[in-house]
Every structure is written in C-alpha cells, then in structure tokens.
Amino acid sequence: xxxxxxxxxxxxxxxxxxxxxxxxxxxxxxxxxxxxxxxxxxxxxxxxxxxxxxxxxxxxxxxxxxxxxxxxxxxxxxxxxxxxxxxxxxxxxxxxxxxxxxxxxxxxxxxxxxxxxxxxxxxxxxxxxxxxxxxxxxxxxxxxxxxxxxxxxxxxxxxxxxxxxxxxxxxxxxxxxxxxxxxxxxxxxxxxxxxxxxxxxxxxxxxxxxxxxxxxxxxxxxxxxxxxxxxxxxxxxxxxxxxxxxxxxxxxxxxxxxxxxxxxxxxxxxxxxxxxxxxxxxxxxxxxxxxxxxxxxxxxxxxxxxxxxxxxxxxxxxxxxxxxxxxxxxxxxxxxxxxxxxxxxxxxxxxxxxxxxxxxxxxxxxxxxxxxxxxxxxx
Length: 379
Hints:
By secondary structure, the protein is α/β, with parallel strands linked by helices. The chain folds into two domains: 6-117 and 206-227, Thiolase/Chalcone synthase (Peroxisomal Thiolase, Chain A, domain 1); 127-201 and 232-376, 3-Layer(aba) Sandwich (Peroxisomal Thiolase, Chain A, domain 1), CATH 3.40.47.10. Helices cover 34% and strands 18% of the residues. The protein has helices at 25-40, 57-64, 80-93, 123-129, 137-152, 156-170, 184-189, 252-265, 284-291, 300-305, 322-325, 333-345, and strands spanning 6-13, 49-52, 70-72, 99-107, 192-194, 197-198, 207-216, 228-237, 274-277, 357-364, 369-376. The strands form two sheets. The chain has a nine-stranded mixed beta sheet, sandwiched between helices. The longest helix is centred in the N-terminal third of the chain and has 16 residues, at 25-40. It is globular. The model has no long low-confidence stretch (mean pLDDT 96).
C-alpha cells in the first residue's frame, strides 16, 4: 500500500453499549453504520463497498439498502476489522470502490438475533482440544499463558496489573462498562475462572457495535470530520488451535502482521504515540508488547507493572479501558479501532496530548489471526 492513500472519514459506535436485549444483531450493525454515516455526512446511497465479520455482508447490504461493487466477509475473529481495513485500502487504491463501510454488531450478552451456527469452526478443535474439555476461550488461553509464566517468569500479579491499569484508563470514559478503580488485591480476590485467570482478568460480555467509513485521501477534505489516515497495515494467520502453535510464548501471526504494518508505514517504535492491543484476556497486551517489538522477551509484564502504560506513562496503552473494562461484545477489534480514531482526531476522553501516530493491533480466535493498523492525523 501507499502510506496515507486512504483516510477514515466516519467512525461511530452504537448509540448504546452494554446490555441491549431489544436490539438484534443486524440492528446493532445498522445502528453503528447509520451513526458512522451521520458522522461522515453520508447516506447509504454514497456507500459502494461493505465489509463485516461474523455476519453475512449480503444481509448487511440488503438491510441498509446498499448495492456494493466490492464486499469483504473475512471472518477470522476479533481482528477481522483490522484486516478489513487492509483489504479496503487495496480496493480503494485499485478503484474497485470509492467509499467503504466496515461494520461490527454483536449481541454477545443478550444473544438477541445472534447467529446459531459456529463462525470459526475447524477440525483441529474437534480433534485435539474439544475431547479434552478445552472448549471455550478461558480454557484455551490458559495453555499459552501458563507456558509463558514458566518460560519467562511472568507472574499472576503482573497479569493482574494489566486489569488495574486499564481500569484507570476506563475511568476517563463515560461510556465504559466499568469505571471504578481496582487494585491488584481486588483482581486476585475475584472469582477464579480458569487458572491463572480470575474474573477481572477476563473480558466483559456485552452488546453493541461500531462502524468505520473509509475513502481515498484525495477526497478526505470533502467530509466534515478530521481525517485519520491509514499509514500502514498488516495481517497474518497462524493456527486455528492453541495446541498447534509453534511457540506458545509468542504469536507468529502477531510478529508477521506487526512487521508488515510497521514496514509499510515506514515507522519505528519510537514514533508511536499511542497503542491499542486487543485484550480479551489480561495476557494479550503482554504478548502484543513483546511480539510487536516494544519490549524484549519476558519484559512486558514488568513493563506494565512499573506503570509505563498507565495514564502519564511513556507508552499509553488501551486508553479506552479495553475489553476488560470498556466493552467486549465478542469480537472486540472494532472498539480498539474506534479509540485509535478518537485519539487521532483529538477527541478521546482519555486524550494523549500531541499524539500523531497510533498503532492498533488485534487478535482473532486463540492466536489464530492478527491484524495491525497504523493510523496518523498527519497527511
């Protein structure tokens, strides 16, 4: 891609977040989409590209009255929306469409209108994990994090600090699910879910959605919003099952996606002012910091525990409070992207002063996929 060739000109979440039993899944998609269109000053007639995950893009287009010339239904978990951005950049640069809508909508808590069929079914799960009771996210993610604890010295207390620091960021956000401060003791005394994960180390289960609108940068000044430019992107896949990872202490998909994004953006780690790392569970920011190269192997736990990512720290991380405190309807990546956009627009309730480059990094499945987006507010 060409850095800054595409801009995000519309961004919004659903009108409400949290517990929304009166809104079905496609309605959440539509609510977010209409809010993003309003943000960009557009209507459905202006959209000719659509992308979504966990839902059929044809149903979304039909529901909104859009007849697209380009569509993307890539669905590899919560980082799908980061990957959609990469695909949308390619489509816009090549002229396949002019204005792309990317939506997320998920009734993760209420299950209103949720699809019954598994979205990410694969044979590896059925053969090598399900027979042994490894069936849901907490039981799957325990495997790599315990290996990391054994090999690198990561402690349970350092995992707890991830939740503590992100709650500090959530306190700035009126729309965050939880804003009250917590301590390491609070985390350690919360209900045990699957060792080493306590309840406060696990993501929320909520309802909501979000949407983005992208177009070519040469059109960006025609919109009422401050453009946020896509400077670099990356994506990768590893294994559909934790048990098949090459190294449980490091994600090959993370490393590949991150390098692609940094290289295409032409930036170094020192250039990054703001960072979002998908945090379905407390260990993921630790993997992200190490696999993206911000710290060395075994250093991310102490790095967070020492306060480097908290408000006032040298690397602001997950400034919306993340999936642990802000919002997590199941496929969290859209909410991380929304906060990166807010930061680049200068309108986040937890605004990082002078931020010009934000990196937004996501995971899909159990380290199955990864997508990384570098954004900037400098044309």
